Amino acid sequence: EYGIEYFLEESTQFLKSETAFIRVDAVLQGRFDKYLYMSLCYYHLASVVSDRERITDGCKYLQYAMYFYGKWQGSREYKEWAGEKEKNEKDRLENARAGKEEKYIPVKCEIIRLLHSRKPMGKWSSVSKAIEGIQHDLDIFITNEPKDKPSGLEPDNLDRTIKSWIKKDRYLAFAFSEAVTKK
User: Fold this and answer.
1) Of 125, 15, 6, nearest to 64 (Cα)?
2) Sign of CA dihedral 62, 63, 67, 68
3) DSSP codes, the chain
4) Is the pLDDT assigned to residue 147 strictly greater than 60?
5) How does pLDDT run across 30-57, given as a tens digit for each residue?
6) Can you tell me the distance from the alpha carbon of 122 to that of 179, in angstroms, rounded to the nearest whole number?
7) Which site among 5, 59, 86, 115 is 20 to 30 Å from 97 CA-CA?
8) What is the pLDDT of residue 113?
9) Strand partners of residue 180
């Protein structure tokens, strides 16, 4: 009789001290898996205490078991939710970036077409001269864009925009290399 009471007392003290370490681990390092371990320990302690006809203590330990199980379950679900939220945000940004690039495709195709159709005998002497040579027709194209899918490009800023596209878009870079003499 004394041995089992001593075991129960020591087990209770051990679980209380272990609970403090587990809470620190969970809060500071995000390790929530030990909550399940604590839940299991308190469940078994509740079972042993209830068998000894200490129902009040058994109920208390069973509540602790449910509390730690709830903490473990909640933290696991939160991790899944946060991971899914991060993935959705990454997908949204990627789709937005792709959509932004996609709306410029007609303008880029028109630039390539104009470079080849408006090219003087030989080639243009510089990229700026080539842009200047197609600027008027490109302004007309942008003005007459469909209203449901506008590119949103401003004619005043077109020179700088095209120069930045040349650095990033290999098709435009190739078209300009074919239409402009290399120095």
Assistant:
1) 15
2) negative
3) -HHHHHHHHHHHHHHHHHHHHHHHHHHHH---THHHHHHHHHHHHHHHHHHTT-HHHHHHHHHHHHHHHHHHHHHHHHHHHHHHHHHHHHHHHHHHHHHHHHTTHHHHHHHHHHHHHS--SS-BSSHHHHHHHHHHHHHHHHHTS-TTS-----GGGHHHHHHHHHHH-HHHHHHHHHHB---
4) yes
5) 777 788 888 888 898 888 888 877 888 8
6) 8
7) 115
8) 92
9) 124
Looking at residue 112, its pLDDT comes to: 92
Tell me what pLDDT residue 70 has. 92
In whole angstroms, what separates CA 123 from the centre of its chain?
46
Better-predicted residue by pLDDT, 180 or 183: 180
Contact 124/179 with Cβ under 8 angstroms? yes
CA distance 75 to 87: 18
**pTM (predicted TM-score):** 0.48
Percentage of residues of the chain with pLDDT beyond 70: 96
Q: Tokens 């272990």 map to which residue?
A: 18
d(C-alpha 170, C-alpha 149), whole Å: 24
